[in-house]
Amino acid sequence: MSRSNQSHGVSDALNQTYGRYSLSQDEAFYEANPSSRGRDGRVEPARTSSYSMRSGQGSSQLQEQLQPSKQMLSTVYGNTISMLEEFESREQQGRHRLPKSHIPTPDQSWKTNEDSVLETQLMCLETQRKSCPNDARNELLDDLKRKTIHWASVREENNCPRQQTDKYAAKIYEILDKGKTDHAFNHRPRPVITERTIRETMPHIMRGKHDQMELDRQFRDDRNRMSRTPAVRRATGRNVVKLGSSRIGKENPHLQFSLDAQDDGYFDNK
Asked: Which of 18, 33, 86, 210 has the fewest CB atoms within 10 Å, measured from its CB?
């Protein structure tokens, strides 16, 4: 089966892989604590001392519930950046020696010269962003958007020519900012889903489910464990935000307002 067809098959299965885990974590808390859900679905502020105590406990429980969801989105994002850097290396062909992000990737089975693997990972990132509970997502997205600007600033600082790598970086930012992007597979004929398609897609589903269960176990065993975002590369000089925002904005001018809204002070203190 072609990589294009496999991208379609993986796309159809992504909601099974990423869609249920994060939502069920959030809903489990609210089912156990129905009084904590406000009219808009958020935790209501405290109104009395006794309520404040219960609310504080509920907020603490909610944070515990949200950590695996935040970690799952961070992990999918980190995998996407790792795959983008592999693509970048192939596209550069040794013309620029650019630094790599410090992102551990124990599973190297995805490494290939076929671009569709990165395209599939972009779909994974979009699906995970959608399925992540609002509270977890809202706390995390600004950080990941700024890290994407970090990443792009390295290419601008090294005067790299604009290439397909930059288009993919802009798509990552667009997914984080807008919730979706225009995927290449949308412009290809949709294949018929066969038994072979399902059989070749199943390893992707099982890998995702394994990651979900492993994250759940880690956070269940250590209640004080907090989610962590990946260590993404950044330019070494000044004006990191300006460099990265300019790079991404050239590829997608519709993102410029969001890019300009990023805070320079954030980078000075990281």
From this structure: 210
Q: Give CA–CA dist 171/183, Å, rounded.
A: 9
Phi and psi, residue 102, nearest 5°: -95, 80
More confident residue, 222 or 175: 175
Separation of alpha carbons 61 and 65, rounded Å: 6
Residue-wise pLDDT for 25-53, tens only, equals 444 433 344 443 444 444 333 333 333 33
CA distance 78 to 163: 21
DSSP code string of 40-62 = TSSBPPP-SHHHHHHHHHHHHHH
Residue 102 β-bridge partners: 231
- Of 226, 43, 70, 59, nearest to 140 by C-alpha is 70
Give the number of other CB atoms < 10 A from CB of residue 98: 16
Amino acid at position 100, single letter: K
List Cα–Cα distances, 112 to 90, 105, 197, 257, in angstroms: 10, 14, 19, 35
> Residue 180, by phi and psi: left (phi above 0), alpha (psi -120 to 50) or beta?
beta
Of 20-24, 44-48, 252-256, minimum mean pLDDT range:
44-48
Distance CA 247, CA 262 (A): 14
Q: Where are the domains of the chain?
A: 3-268
Tally: H helices and E strands in the chain? 10, 0
Distance CA 17, CA 117 (A): 16
Residue 235's closest CA among 143, 103, 99?
99
Tokens of 139: 């706390």
Is residue 99 classed as helix, strand or coil in its secondary structure? coil
Residues 6+ apart with CB under 8 A from 49: none
